[in-house]
Design brief:
The structure is a single chain. This protein is 58% helix and 5% strand. It is mainly α and 416 residues long. The protein folds into 3 domains: 101 residues, Tyrosine recombinase, N-terminal domain (DNA polymerase, domain 1, Orthogonal Bundle); 169 residues, Intergrase catalytic core (hpI Integrase, Chain A), CATH 1.10.443.10; 111 residues, no CATH class. The strands form 2 sheets. A 3-stranded antiparallel beta sheet has the order 1-2-3. β4 and β5 form a beta hairpin. The termini are far apart.
């Protein structure tokens, strides 16, 4: 008789620190966003520290439930707890893929429910008067004061995230139809948007860049105590420090950079801006993030049920989406054939390869079939003339109105 193969007892398997580190590295390598990697790394480190401090616990559903109870006992917010649990679930799946955990145990861990959040967190924001006071206290003649004033102007006037602010490049500022804008800004989740720059914000940027001699690379740089510019950029901690210190000078406590982003949304809405336009300006999928739903009228404030797509609407959207994509791919094929017929030397072949790569990236960005992005996608295609309203017949009137409103907003931006 041959040797009987002994199956590992996964249910009693205690993962050691090297195993956990291996799974953690696999999780981080699977994430594309640096911000997501930073958040997940912190969450996994927190779990590993708790797991290793307990006496020989097997990695299973019961342990994760105990960890959730531990997080709740610390008085953490529901969003924080759910974020930590999401990282642990991801860790369990990587452990299963590595053969350290059975698929059944990983599935059991994924079924651990998060914490329900009661109510709605609106966050902080500033009034128009408070925003003016913050900018007045940031104003100054020193090089650092000019930089801080320009940073606050971008946060309040353009609604930038702090990661987008520190990563802003000189060549991303472009003149479009007589107005300055940040073109093709890649934001959270890889979403791409164009952000118009108000004249007073551009004046603040010019004052800083001229004084600092910035003509390429990152716009915002570190400023030494001696008043000289050094380095190739700044960290997000600098943005935190600038916002906190300038707000404290005006008597405002506990103000974060994201609160200035909310302020931008609030001021735009109070000035008559529509929710869809503000959503495009900020590059966010969830309108509730901007805390506008409380100040909007009941007729203009969408809820999650209104944003859902029924089965029949999904079929209509899929048909229209595929038709537009097919037409654009046909254009690419014709252009490729034309370029291929003009190849005379090896370098022309690499130019064609570069062209196809750029078009593929452009099509991937433009044709996003996620339900949360369909309104934006159809609005842009409608504005470009690649889609007709006839192809969208059958959608609910509120969705059609949102698509028309977004297309109109893009047309006004191009014509401005």
């Amino acid at each position: 008789m041959g040797k009987q193969r002994i199956k590992p007892n996964y249910r009693r398997r205690v993962l050691r620190l090297p195993d956990l580190d291996h799974c953690k590295l696999a999780v981080l390598n699977s994430l594309g966003s640096p911000a997501s990697r930073r958040v997940y790394e912190y969450a996994i480190d927190q779990f590993i520290a708790w797991y290793c401090s307990e006496p020989r616990l097997a990695f299973n559903r019961i342990v994760v439930v105990r960890y959730r109870m531990h997080l709740e006992s610390r008085g953490l917010a529901a969003n924080t707890i759910n974020q930590q649990l999401a990282a642990v679930r991801r860790l369990a799946h990587e452990a299963a893929d590595s053969g350290l955990l059975s698929p059944e145990l990983a599935a059991g861990i994924s079924r651990v429910k998060g914490v329900k959040q009661l109510g709605f967190r609106a966050g902080n924001w500033l009034s128009a008067e408070e925003s003016s006071e913050v900018l007045k206290h940031a104003w100054g003649g020193s090089l650092r004061a000019k930089r801080d004033y320009a940073m606050l102007a971008m946060l309040l006037g353009c609604g930038f995230r702090r990661s987008e602010l520190v990563g802003l490049e000189w060549d991303e500022l472009q003149m479009r139809q007589g107005h300055w804008a940040v073109v093709d800004l890649i934001g959270k989740g890889g979403h791409i948007r164009t952000v118009p720059i108000p004249e007073w914000v551009k004046a603040a940027l010019d004052q800083w860049t001229v004084a600092a001699g910035v003509t390429e690379g990152r716009i915002f740089r570190a400023v030494a105590r001696t008043g000289t510019v050094w380095g190739k950029g700044i960290s997000q901690n600098v943005v935190w420090y600038v916002v906190r210190s300038c707000c404290q000078k005006t008597g405002l406590e506990h103000i974060a950079p994201h609160d200035l982003r909310r302020t931008c949304a609030k001021l735009c809405h109070s000035s008559g801006g529509e929710l869809e336009q503000i959503q495009f300006l900020l590059g966010t999928e969830d309108l509730n993030m901007t805390s506008l739903s409380r100040s909007a009228t009941p007729d203009s404030s969408p809820n999650r049920r209104d944003l859902r797509w029924s089965r029949s609407e999904k079929a209509i959207a899929r048909k229209a989406f595929d038709a537009v994509l097919k037409r654009e791919l046909h254009e690419v094929i014709q252009e490729t054939k034309q370029k291929a017929s003009q190849i005379k030397q090896p370098s022309d072949l690499w130019d064609l390869e570069h062209y196809l790569t750029q078009r593929r990236k452009e099509i991937d960005r433009k044709h996003d079939y996620r339900s949360s992005q369909l309104t934006h996608v159809f609005g842009r295609l409608l504005q470009e003339g690649r889609l007709s309203e006839e192809e969208l017949r059958g959608l609910r009137e509120d969705k059609l109105e949102s698509i028309r409103s977004y297309a109109k907003f893009l047309a006004e931006m191009d014509a401005a």
